[in-house]
Amino acid sequence: MKMKACQAMVECLKAENIKVVFGYPGAAICPFYDALMDSGIKHVLVRHEANAGHEASGMARMTGKPAVCVVTSGPGAVNLITAIATAYADSIPIVCITGQVNTDQIGSDVFQEADITGAAEPFVKHSYLVKDPNDIPRVFKEAFYIAGSGRPGPVLIDMPMDVQKAEIDFEYPKKADIRSYKPTLKGNAFQVKRVMAELEKAKKPLICIGGGVFAANAQDEVVKLSHTMNIPVITTMMGISVFSDDDPLFFGMLGSHGVPAANRAVNECDVLFLVGARVGDRAVRTPLALEQTTKILHIDIDPAELGKNIRVDFPLVGDAKNVLTQLLERAKPMQHDEWLAQLESWRVERKFATAKKGTVVPRQFIDKLSRRLPDNTVVVADVGQNQIWTATSFHIGEGGRFMTSGGMGTMGYSLPAAIGAKIADPKRPVIAICGDGSLQMCMMELATAVQNDVRVKLVVMTNKRLGMVRELQTKGYNGRETAVFLDGSPDFIKLAEAYGIRSCRVTDDRSADEAISLLAEYDGIALVEVIVDENEATL
Amino acid sequence: MKHTISVLVENHSGVLSRITGLFSRRGFNIESLAVGPTQDPEVSRITIIADGDEHTVEQIEKQLNKLIEVIKVRTLTKDECFARELMLVKVSCPAEKRSEIMTIAEMTEAKIVDVTLTTVTLEICARYQKLERFIEIVAPYGITELVRTGTIAIQKGSETMDRKK
């Protein structure tokens, strides 16, 4: 069918079943916006381009499918890079469409020109600069396929303005066929057998799950394997909420900010089975020590992750869902009573100190709050102390979901990602937890939430400090605290009022209870500011 | 240790920058790099000489394979391939030294491609090590300019990059 190329772009999105795009227009992407207007696809206007990417990322994490963001050329595209890098680090499938100057002007430094495919190269799974409008259907088909398959990640499509305005004969391909891209999905049968044999032989086996479990939608399979074989489970930050905290076989997050039980487990186990976890430095600081004492089995869909950060005895390339299903076919009930009893003895009941007057203990507040919210709540942690507090103190119920910028550690991720998550699944409660530092990196998105009536809840932990950096300076730089004071911040309650958002401030137990009721019961956007001791520790 | 890595890629614009970008951002060292078309106009072949231990080379191969436009990666060992590099060297050469240089050229299978009153330009095509030795031999005369293509390599026998025999 003959149509304008910008119309064809919209048809591609429709064919991919895209209902919402997050974006910010500009001259170079105007043809597309014009075609989008009557398409029935909802456009969510962000207040900064990076947040278009984060919102798409929040949505993609919920649906497991690529979500779309659209920005203009030059500064619009360059602003998006942080979100692209954030999605790349956590393997989140997003398709980013950027406007570009006319093809004949590329390279001449015209107004709002930036080499975005070049600039974003280190952070994309793949990118396209479309110079021939006839390539649009194939490029879009490939982009969605590449973003969502194998190890997911961001794909960028750079669209010069004249290309968008051209006329093409449109037919959307049924399938993407890329000869050099064929992800391995099923595990090698022989290797599956060997891995199962190792799991059966193990006296003290341990499963460590990562974000790859979500990417493969393999939550049920890994829970089933653990339950069938009676194998305890720990998680990286990216794997939080695959298991409910109520699961007796689950022992929490490992790593430099993890819980003692998980860290002791990883040091004491004889077989460590990594599932979609890449052994990042925050999870395992001394892989060398670990590989000497422990047999390591590792499932990953990305062969490059096998043996990259830790030596692996039994690598298994494949999609976690498929490989775990293959393993489940062979799984037999096992007994590990002694090992489990040992692990159980390492669980530490957290004791909270008494809060200084006018403040509350953040972990205690988060714990209390999480137990009042429905089990299926989606919680998005920002970056900084609030991330660790939330990761280790937010009680995950059955069917709950935790998400955060795990790999890149991008401040300001929580609010936009929460908006994206809420739009993806409006019936589920979504709550973002951030600090007063990270809020001020994404505060402008309050307007996006209000404009689109996206009923997210926001908790701001105010300590008037960049708490985690402050702590680093206290411990590592002789207490020379510099550039970490957030004086000059606005009154967040008044700010919420200015946006027409319900809000309250927590300074003691009573106000905490009121705030928790607001967050649990109010059907609208709400902001709760929690006043925290400025010297509150991360751990 | 040096490794010869052959890479078949889609002949798209931007592929080379993806590959060199990958090397620099992952901290792999490229000693030399040569690119050119193959018998298939849609496919280019890149030969990279890289330095690193076994683990590094394994990572290089795996990371290269992740690039969508990379069709095939293969590390060729010294024994299984022919490797060649072309070098052009301009050497200072007054008239009285000309015959000496001509003898060197003859012995090393280098060709004299240009002569002036004060210089001689030599062309030599050989393995990396031979070029290094050649440089040592002509260096005393004074090298005024030197240019190399980077190594290219092809497997011995009937086996090819994309097909085992």
Which secondary structure elements does this structure contain, and how are they paired or packed?
The complex is a heterodimer of chains A (539) and B (165).
Chain A: E1 2-4, H1 5-15, E2 20-24, H2 30-37, E3 42-45, H3 49-63, E4 67-71, H4 75-89, E5 94-100, H5 116-119, E6 126-129, H6 136-148, E7 155-160, H7 161-165, E8 167-169, H8 189-201, E9 205-209, H9 212-215, H10 219-229, E10 233-235, E11 250-253, H11 260-268, E12 271-275, H12 287-293, E13 295-300, E14 314-317, H13 320-328, H14 337-346, H15 362-372, E15 378-381, H16 385-393, E16 401-404, H17 414-424, E17 430-435, H18 436-439, H19 445-451, E18 457-462, H20 467-476, H21 492-499, E19 502-506, H22 509-521, E20 526-531
Parallel strand pairs in A: 2-3, 2-4, 4-5, 5-7, 6-7, 9-10, 9-12, 10-11, 12-13, 13-14, 15-16, 15-17, 17-18, 18-20, 19-20
Antiparallel strand pairs in A: 1-8
Chain B: E1 2-10, H1 15-25, E2 29-37, E3 43-51, H2 54-66, E4 70-76, E5 81-92, H3 98-108, E6 111-115, E7 119-126, H4 128-138, E8 143-148, E9 152-155
Antiparallel strand pairs in B: 1-3, 1-4, 2-3, 5-7, 5-8, 5-9, 6-7
Descriptive overview:
- The complex is a heterodimer of chains A (539) and B (165).
- The mean pLDDT of chain A is 96.
- In chain A, helix 11 runs antiparallel to helix 14, helix 15 crosses helix 16 and helix 15 runs parallel beside helix 22 (509-521).
- Chain A has 539 residues and is α/β, with parallel strands linked by helices.
- The longest helix of chain A is centred in the N-terminal third of the chain and has 15 residues, at 49-63.
- Chain A folds into 3 domains: 2-169, Rossmann fold, CATH 3.40.50.970; 189-346, 3-Layer(aba) Sandwich (Rossmann fold); 362-531, Thiamin diphosphate (ThDP)-binding fold, Pyr/PP domains (Rossmann fold, 3-Layer(aba) Sandwich).
- In chain A, the strands form 4 sheets. Chain A has a 6-stranded parallel sheet with strand order 3-2-4-5-7-6, with helices on both faces.
- Chain B is α+β, with helices and mostly antiparallel strands and 165 residues long.
- Chain B has 2 domains: 2-76, Alpha-Beta Plaits, CATH 3.30.70.260; 82-152, Alpha-Beta Plaits (2-Layer Sandwich).
- Chain B is 28% helix and 42% strand.
- Chain B contains 4 helices and 9 strands, in the order E-H-E-E-H-E-E-H-E-E-H-E-E.
- Chain B has helices at residues 15-25, 54-66, 98-108, 128-138, and strands at 2-10, 29-37, 43-51, 70-76, 81-92, 111-115, 119-126, 143-148, 152-155.
- The longest helix of chain B is centred in the middle third of the chain and has 13 residues, at 54-66.
- Chain B is elongated.
- The interface between A and B is medium-sized, with 17 and 18 residues.
